[in-house]
Amino acid sequence: MTNEHSFSSENNPYLDEYRLPDSNQPANATGPQTVTETLLSEEEVNQFITISQQLEQELQRIVIGQERVIRELLLVLLAGGHALLEGVPGLGKTLLVRTLSDALSLKFARVQFTPDLMPADIVGTTIVTEEGESTAGGGRRVFSFQHGPIFANIVLADEINRATPKTQSALLEGMQERTVSVGDRTRPLPQPFFVLATQNPLEMEGTYPLPEAQLDRFMLKIMVNFPRAEDLLRIIDTTIGNQKSQAQTVATGDQLQRLIEIARAVPIASHVKEYAVRLLLATHPDQEDAPEQVQQYVRYGASPRGLQSIIATARVRALLEGRFNVALDDIQAVAFPSLRHRIVLNFDGLADNITAEQLISAITAELEPA
Amino acid sequence: MAATMPSHIPRTTEPDHLVTVLRPWSRRLLLQQTIMWALGGLISGLCIASLLLLGARLFPWATAPYWAAGCILVCTLMTIGYSIWDRPSLVTTAHQIDRRLVLHDRVSTAWELRTQSSPFTNLQLQNTLTHLQAHTPGQTISLQPRRITLATITGILVLLTLLYFLPNPMQSILQQRAALHAQITKQISTIDKIRQNVQKQPDLSDADKKQLDQTLHDVETQLQHAQNETDAQQALANAQAKINQLHDPQASAKLQSQVDAGKSLQSSNNSGAQALGQALAKNDPQGVDKALQKISSQANSLSNGQRQQLAQDLEQAANQSNQSSQLSSSLHQLAKSLTDGDTSEVSDATKAVSSSAQQTQTTQNQENTLNQTSQDLQQAANNLAAANNNTNQGQGQNQNQGQSPNQNQGQGQNQKQGQGQNPNQNQGQGQSQNQGQGQGHGNGNGQNGGGKQQGKSEQVYVQGQNGQGTSTESNGGSGNVQSGSNVPYSQVIQHYNQQAHDAIDNSNVSPNLKDAVHNYFDNLEGQQ
Q: In whole angstroms, what is the distance from residue B167 CA to residue B165 CA?
């Protein structure tokens, strides 16, 4: 899918999420969510649950022992966000992303980030080509845009921290605006569009840690842990053999797009929203309600994008859990992957080997529901 | 995780249906809340009651059991009332159900979105109702108190029972106070009767009646607020002092003058003068009037010699009654008029003598009334002291501990009373009262028996030393006061000295204090 057409922000539904309500609209109109919900049918809600269950099962069949990672990846996928997967090599990160693209019948592109990778290698470049039949004087030469790998539905940015910040930032516009600007033209990315980046926490020499602005674009940071012994046995049985497992297609890109819209319509009670807000504010050391550990070890707390991430993924989680409302449990469950990469530790925190997970645990333990 | 999709999803939401479903849960929660709060209030009340009963064992508090019972009742009722007033709303009920049934905020979300109509809210409501119907309020919300609650109540009840039924060391003090209070009440009623009697006295002026009534009313008020016997005795003594101030200091002198004049006239040869003398000596105004009429009627028939003799007797009687200027002048006037032979002057003089005798009689009646009132008050004080002594005797325990405040107070009172009656049915009363109060400060520490004294307690009264303050002395009574024989001062001092020596040698008094008492009486003996 390398469609090229002029960009119009009004046609991009993803921008609506962050758009302020129009003053000409009625006060009770709540933007695209209301429009989505009026078009929503109960059968589609059923369909969401069915497809998401099938997708989860298909991923679990191929990727062994990473149920939590698969669940969190589904949360990002159905919430329409991007994910950063962190884990040592060989844990199945690439396999997971590829299986996901297979199951959804989406265009998949993998970019192996290296220090010499250039932004044009990702977004594409304009080249001179000949147009028409070859004559003595040659054909008519024109400039044409050569699409980069970012023009795919699922982009795997493998070892993203090995590229230079300049190259890393080439993903910024695509991840946030879902457009690519090259030269004087802005081109929309195909829908749906997901960036799934990986990074290796071990070999840090010669790497360029992602800046906070880049990290904030990722909806969740998913930690890929080492499988358990029984999972390793299952990996042996399923992967070392003549038969290659291939994921079956569960849904199309359009269906996935619709699932995302459905997930955004899940109702959420006010006390749950207030809890999420207080949870986010508790990550800021200058807040009175922040736990002592946060005040001692945190330099900067999570941004409002963190709150959006919590709410969006909590809605998906509620549906995946068979509920039609967001619960406090959902907020607490998604708080870890949503906030762990958005909390910046200070020197004391780094010196004392404090992790973001410890701080989030302290916050959830101290925070009482309203 | 498999979704629990209902087989039949309603197309429209029914908010009222959710309300209907939540009502029984709300009622059950209210019932449970009421029981829990009531038990909490009961525990609080029992704790407070235990503290009150414990305090009643440290400080004398007669009404502590009633206060304890009231605390239990009030605490329980207050908590029940509060729990009913703060009944759980449907929103609270929804949150409570979510928490108790682990419904993951289904009910609270459904309640908040009950007015919205959308596929998701319909699904959410139906899902919520499906989960709710799987439970009943009776099974989910237990009304049985927790074991720890019951154990706590039982423990406090046992403690409370022990505190209530075990002997209270403060009980003796409470009984003593109750007896004192009863006695004070009795004396107040006595004083009330005295007030009524005072109002009926014809010889008292309105001002005196008012002042007496005010004094008695004040002593009643002070008795009602008296905390101990000392306060009560002090109030009675103050009232007596006030009443004594109402006495006419010249009344006894006037009466004595009249008696002396009467005795002088009794030796006269004239029958009228003798009758006048007897009437004056008996303080009988009617007899005086009759005698004066007789003298008036004899005046014209007497010879000059007899008249001169009568005038001389009257002059002598007038000289005897120089303490009563009115009587003396009227007798002088009568004697002069008899000498002059002026009938009209004799008549005026007899009227003056009669008026003087009448005035003396009235004054004496007033004095008698005041004396009677003072005597009644003294009787009330004696009754109070006697009752207190009876209460103190037989006390099981008497515990003195601590350090004395280095302050000695002494109060002495000497009182003599006498009554006389003559054959003519005239009654006389006499009273002699000496009061003194002394107060002194010392630097020594005193400690009296750190342990317990079993058996009968003994009260020791120490006479005040060099009493300061007001000292009133009044002598009243008509004529024949039979107050016993006069005792020389040296014998009185010797008697008191012996008593003081005996008392102080038989008690646990420091040698220094013994020496001080001995020196005191030695000095008194030296002053005679």
A: 6
On average, the pLDDT of chain B sits at 75
In angstroms, rounded to a whole number, what is the distance separating the alpha carbons of residues B254 and B262?
12
- Distance, CA of A99 to CA of A102 (rounded, Å): 5
Q: What whole-number distance in Å separates Cα of residue A310 and Cα of residue A275?
A: 11
Q: Using CA atoms, how far apart are residues A71 and A316, in angstroms rounded to an integer?
A: 10
Calpha distance B88→B36 (Å, rounded): 14
From A344, A339, A342, select the one nearest A299 (Cα to Cα).
A344
Mean pLDDT of A257-262: 89
Interface contacts (A, B; CB < 8 Å): 73
User: Does A321 sit within 8 Å of B1, measured CB to CB?
Assistant: yes
Looking at beta carbons, which residues of chain B come within 8 Å of A68?
Answer: none
CA dihedral defined by A227, A229, A233, A239, rounded to 10 degrees? 20
Would you state the structure tokens that stand for residue B487, as one six-digit string? 């005792």
Question: Which among A63, A94, A117 is positioned nearest to A231, based on CA atoms?
Answer: A63
A295-298: which pairs have CB atoms within 8 A and are 24 or more residues apart?
A296/A348, A296/A349, A297/A345, A297/A346, A297/A348, A297/A349, A297/A352, A297/A354, A297/A359, A298/A343, A298/A344, A298/A345, A298/A346, A298/A349, A298/A359
DSSP E strand stretches across B176-300: none
Yes or no, beta carbons of A267 and B119 under 8 Å apart: no
Q: How far is CA B62 from CA B65, B67, B68, B229, B397, in A?
A: 8, 10, 11, 18, 18
Tokens 């410890």 sit on residue: A358
Do residue B124 and residue A46 have CB atoms under 8 angstroms apart? no
Tokens 């119907």 appear where?
Answer: B133
B120–A contact, CB cutoff 8 A: yes
A279-323 pLDDT per residue, tens: 999 999 999 889 999 999 999 999 999 999 999 999 999 999 888
Q: Does A268 touch chain B (CB under 8 A)?
A: yes
Nearest-Å Rg of the Cα atoms of chain B is: 44
pLDDT tier for residue B397 given thresholds of 50, 70 and 90: very low
Q: Which one has a higher pLDDT value, A200 or A336?
A: A336
Q: Which of B129, B111, B127, B107 is nearest to B119 (CA)?
A: B127
DSSP strand pairing (A179-182 vs A185-188): antiparallel
Residues of B in contact with A269 (CB under 8 A): 105, 108-109, 112-113
- Residue B116's closest chain A neighbor by CA? A267
Region label for B471, one of left (φ > 0), alpha (ψ between -120 and 50) or beta (otherwise)? beta
**Secondary structure letter of residue A14 according to DSSP:** G
Judged by CB atoms closer than 8 Å, whether chains meet at B119 and A272 is answered as no
How open is the CA angle B488-B493-B494, to the nearest 5 degrees? 95
Residue with tokens 């809340």: B33
**End-to-end CA, chain B:** 118
Question: DSSP string spanning A170-234?
Answer: HHHHHHHHSEEEETTEEEEPPSS-EEEEEE-SS--TT--PPPHHHHHH-SEEEE-PPPPHHHHHH
Q: What is the DSSP letter of A160?
A: G
CA–CA dist A300, B405 (Å, integer): 69
Q: Note if the bond before A192 is cis, omega within 30 degrees.
A: yes
